[in-house]
DNA sequence: ATGCTGATGGCCT
DNA sequence: GGCCATCAGCATG
């Protein structure tokens, strides 16, 4: 059994920690993923953060100490995982957007039927699926249970841009990724929902 | 390659 | 009741 990974890197604010997680390996239940794309959330004035309007049942883990997983459920079918960073109480976290499967390839394939290897963990919900992370893992302490995070060498280069799928704070370049990685998802501005045509003319 | 859209349910006002 | 830190499928160029 290996010594626990040093996670002191997580103690800083999310936008400073996020790029340092590029290249880190997250392992759970037979599959490990090397992170290639992440996003920072939280802090005092991030309108795009789940914590922006204060502590709620869903976001409460974000307000706790760094080194835990914050996993939420969205769109009625998808899970997304974050690593909570510091300082404690700042409600900061790094969303794990994409990675490469580096262990347990066959298991990951079986969890994502029909997906190409490149797509196995390309996108936050796909990454959770490949790693079998669900709301059951919300709040777990990294390294103490079945979820392990092993930081890699400090990345030397990365790129930044606006976060994906957010209407708020499109100007804040808090998405970080490794250049040239096939598993990095394409940028898409937040979809504005089509309102149902003009009013209530539609029937049921 | 890009673009739209439905699925589907928890979360929050 | 409206809004999603999304994805797959299908359409089109």
Automatic annotation (TrEMBL):
InterPro entries: Formyl_transferase-like_C_sf (IPR011034), MPG (IPR003180), MPG_sf (IPR036995). Pfam families: Pur_DNA_glyco (PF02245). One of its GO terms (molecular function) is hydrolase activity, acting on glycosyl bonds. The keyword Zinc-finger does not apply. Gene3D superfamilies: Methylpurine-DNA glycosylase (MPG). Residues 180-204 are annotated as: Disordered. It comes from the Bacteria. Keywords: DNA damage, DNA repair, Glycosidase, Hydrolase. Its EC number is 3.2.2.-. PANTHER family: DNA-3-METHYLADENINE GLYCOSYLASE. Belongs to the DNA glycosylase MPG family. This is Putative 3-methyladenine DNA glycosylase.
